[in-house]
C-alpha cells in the first residue's frame, strides 16, 4: 500500500501552482544577461512553454503576466490562446520599476503628476484583468530611499495609502489586490513596504479584497518565514505566495533548492492554517533561470513544491498534538522530522502514473523533443523582462 493515503492523494490532486511568464524569458544578474537558446520572443511563446510544464506535471494550470513585459494589443485573444493550450491567465503583476519617472517613487512619489501616472498604470492593469479573466493584481513597489534624511518616510506611507485606496476602488467585485513586501533592494536604507507588518497595515486599511503577498526570498537571513505564514493565515490576510529560494539576497532560485526543510515547514503551516488548496491563497513561483534551461527549471520547481507538500501531509497530526500537549519536546520534534525525512519520490512517481501522467516529468519533457524544436525555431529577438 502506498504511503500516500487516499486523503493525501486527494490533497495532492487539488494542488495548483501558478507559473510566472518571466521565468521563461532571459533574465540576469546585475552583471550579465545570458541568452538561452529557444527563449520565447512573445508572450504567446512564454505561455506555450508554461503549458508544457503543466502537460507533464498537471500542477501548473495558470500563468502570471507582468505588464508591460507581456503587453499585447488583444488580451482577450491572448486568453483564448492560453485556454486552447489548457492553461488560464492568472495574476497580473504591475511594474513601476523600469521607468525613469519613478526614480524617487511611484505610488509614494511627492510629485502628484508621477503618482497619478503610477495609479493610472495600476488601473490599466485592472482593465487587463477584466479581459484576461484574472482575479489578482499583484503590486510590488521598488520604492524607498538610500540615505538617512533623504525622504519623509511618514508622508510616503500616507501617500501610499491614498494611492492604494484609489486602486482598490477600481477593483471589480471578484477582483483582489495583493501587496508584496521586500526588506531591501533596489533601495538600501528604507523601503516603503519592507515587511509583512507594513503590507498588512496598508491592506487592512483598504478592505477584504486587499491581502498580503509573501515572497519567500524577501526576508532577512534567518527570518522564521513559517511564523509569518501562520500569522497571516490566522488573520485571513495571506493572499498569495511568490515561491523561490535564496542563499543570500533575493536570489530567485528554484524553490526548495536552497533549503527544502524551510519549504516543508512553510507548507506544514499552510496545511495547519487550512491554506492548502484554498482558493483564497494563490501559490505562485517568482523565479529566474539565468544559467539553467528554463522549462526544466520550472518543472523541477513545481515538483519540489509537490514533494514537500506530500511530506508535510505525512505529519501525524494526532501524535504531534499529543506530544505538544505533554510538552514532550523531543517526541514532537521527532514526529515532525519523521515526515520530513520520508522519501516520497517513489510513491509520487507511482501515483502520477496511476493518473496517466509521466512518472518522471523531467525525463518525459527531455524525451519530448520540445526543447530541440524551440531551439531550432526561435531565432532572433528576445522578450522584454529582467535585463531587457
Ligand atoms: C521583486 O523582487 C519581485 O519579487 C516582484 O514580485 C516583481 O514583480 C518580481 O520580483 C519580478 O521578478
Ligand atoms: Mn516576487
Ligand atoms: Mn523578488
SSE topology:
Elements: H1 6-13, E1 18-20, H2 43-57, E2 62-66, H3 75-84, E3 88-93, H4 112-132, E4 136-140, E5 144-145, H5 153-169, E6 176-180, E7 190-191, H6 196-204, E8 210-215, H7 225-234, E9 238-243, H8 260-272, E10 282-285, H9 294-313, H10 317-325, H11 329-340, H12 345-354, H13 361-368, H14 370-377
Parallel strand pairs: 1-2, 2-3, 3-4, 4-6, 6-8, 8-9, 9-10
Antiparallel strand pairs: 5-7
Helix pairs in contact: 2-9, 2-13, 4-5, 7-8, 8-9, 10-11
The structure holds alpha-D-psicofuranose and manganese (II) ion (2 copies).
The site of alpha-D-psicofuranose has 9 residues, from loops.
GO molecular function: L-rhamnose isomerase activity; manganese ion binding
Pfam families: RhaA
Enzyme class: isomerase
What does this structure look like?
This is L-rhamnose isomerase/sugar isomerase. Its EC number is 5.3.1.-, 5.3.1.14. Keywords: Cytoplasm, Isomerase, Manganese, Metal-binding, Rhamnose metabolism. The protein is 44% helix and 11% strand. With 388 residues, the chain is of the alpha/beta class. The protein has one domain: Alpha-Beta Barrel (TIM Barrel). The strands form two sheets. It has an eight-stranded parallel β-sheet. Strands 5-7 form a two-stranded antiparallel sheet.
Amino acid at each position: 500500500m502506498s504511503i500516500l493515503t487516499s486523503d493525501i492523494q486527494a490533497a495532492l490532486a487539488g494542488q495548483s501552482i501558478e507559473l510566472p511568464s518571466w521565468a521563461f524569458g532571459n533574465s540576469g544578474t546585475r552583471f550579465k544577461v545570458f541568452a538561452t537558446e529557444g527563449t520565447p520572443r512573445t508572450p504567446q511563446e512564454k505561455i506555450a512553454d508554461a503549458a508544457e510544464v503543466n502537460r507533464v506535471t498537471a500542477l501548473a494550470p495558470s500563468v502570471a503576466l507582468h505588464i508591460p513585459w507581456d503587453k499585447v494589443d488583444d488580451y482577450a485573444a491572448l486568453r483564448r490562446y492560453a485556454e486552447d493550450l489548457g492553461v488560464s491567465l492568472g495574476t497580473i503583476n504591475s511594474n513601476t520599476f523600469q521607468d525613469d519617472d519613478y526614480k524617487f517613487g511611484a505610488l509614494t512619489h511627492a510629485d502628484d503628476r508621477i503618482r497619478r501616472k503610477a495609479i493610472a498604470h495600476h488601473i490599466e492593469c485592472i482593465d487587463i484583468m477584466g479581459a484576461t479573466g484574472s482575479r489578482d493584481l499583484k503590486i510590488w513597489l521598488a520604492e524607498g530611499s538610500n540615505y538617512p534624511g533623504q525622504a519623509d518616510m511618514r508622508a510616503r506611507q500616507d501617500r501610499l495609502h491614498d494611492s492604494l485606496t484609489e486602486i482598490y476602488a477600481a477593483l471589480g467585485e471578484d477582483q483582489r489586490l495583493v501587496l508584496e513586501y521586500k526588506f531591501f533592494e533596489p533601495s538600501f536604507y528604507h523601503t516603503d513596504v519592507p515587511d509583512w507588518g507594513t503590507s498588512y497595515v496598508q491592506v487592512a486599511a483598504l478592505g477584504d479584497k486587499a491581502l498580503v503577498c509573501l515572497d519567500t526570498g524577501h526576508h532577512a537571513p534567518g527570518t522564521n518565514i513559517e511564523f509569518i505564514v501562520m500569522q497571516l493565515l490566522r488573520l485571513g490576510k495571506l493572499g498569495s505566495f511568490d515561491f523561490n529560494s535564496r542563499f543570500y539576497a533575493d536570489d530567485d532560485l528554484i524553490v526548495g533548492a536552497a533549503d527544502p526543510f524551510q519549504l516543508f515547514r512553510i507548507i506544514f503551516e499552510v496545511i495547519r492554517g487550512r491554506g492548502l488548496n484554498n482558493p483564497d491563497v494563490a501559490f505562485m513561483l517568482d523565479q529566474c533561470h539565468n544559467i539553467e534551461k528554463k522549462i526544466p527549471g520550472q518543472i523541477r520547481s513545481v515538483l519540489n513544491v509537490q514533494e514537500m507538500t506530500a511530506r508535510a501531509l505525512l505529519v501525524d497530526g494526532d501524535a504531534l498534538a499529543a506530544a505538544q500537549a505533554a510538552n514532550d519536546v523531543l517526541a514532537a520534534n521527532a514526529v515532525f522530522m519523521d515526515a520530513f525525512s520520508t522519501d516520497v519520490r517513489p510513491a509520487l512517481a507511482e501515483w502520477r502514473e496511476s493518473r496517466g501522467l509521466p512518472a518522471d516529468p523531467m525525463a518525459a519533457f527531455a524525451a519530448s523533443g520540445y526543447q530541440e524544436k524551440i531551439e531550432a525555431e526561435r531565432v532572433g529577438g528576445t522578450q522584454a523582462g529582467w535585463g531587457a
